Amino acid sequence: METLKILEKQENLNWDYDEEADVLYISIGKPKEALGVDIGDGNIVRYSEKSGEIVGLTLLGVKEKVLSALAKKQ
Description:
Elements: E1 13-18, E2 23-28, E3 35-38, E4 43-47, E5 54-60, H1 62-73
Antiparallel strand pairs: 1-2, 2-5, 3-4, 4-5
């Protein structure tokens, strides 16, 4: 099995939140072309096939999930 490099480089994290769609996009460094792999529960890991590095995350339903989790704690 190939090695997948996860946050080996110290780069800036960039993010953008689409409130209408309730989606959080996180890029490690500048956004790059990448393949997306759905890892379940509305979480998509984006990685570069060339370098084997994770280059971003897409998180679906962030606000909904946070509000639901907070409501359960009350």
